[in-house]
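Hi W., the C2G complex you wanted:
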Amino acid sequence: MPETTSHADDHPRTVITFGTFDVFHVGHLRVIERAAALGDRLVVGVSADALNLRKKGREPVFSQAERLAIVAALKPVDEVFVEESLELKREYIAQYAADVLVMGDDWAGRFDELGDACEVVYLPRTPAISTTALIEKISGTS
Ligand code: C2G
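Structure:
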């Protein structure tokens, strides 16, 4: 009889992460690199302009099409899509067959209930850099 192999062991591990990635900076790059290192395939949900407006009360500096193009061009990224709502993570995890959800630790604890759908990992943020601080620095308001 042929030996049976376990598919659980040989299927590629898909990691999913989310973000706005506006005014792309090295903190964004580091979280994407660390997320990619946790699996074989990295899928990134880039927040829609409308989601950002709802959440942060302002339009991102770069449009969702531009932010998607930047993230899609990164070496560790295999696939990108537009994240339309913060509440759809479970659906996106299923749609992209994700084994691991990675979020920055500014979201620590927020997505623990998805632990029945996939592994949930929070990574520490890169210190001392943020889109907001960059905008303030460039516009001379800090
Ligand atoms: N990040 C980081 N270090 C920084 C800044 C950001 O590790 N200094 C990480 C964040 O923790 C996040 C990713 O980079 O994992 C993207 O950051 P944002 O664009 O600020 O994403 P956010 O608006 O928090 O995402 O479903 C989540 C939403 O898409 C919102």
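The chain has a mean pLDDT of 92.

W.
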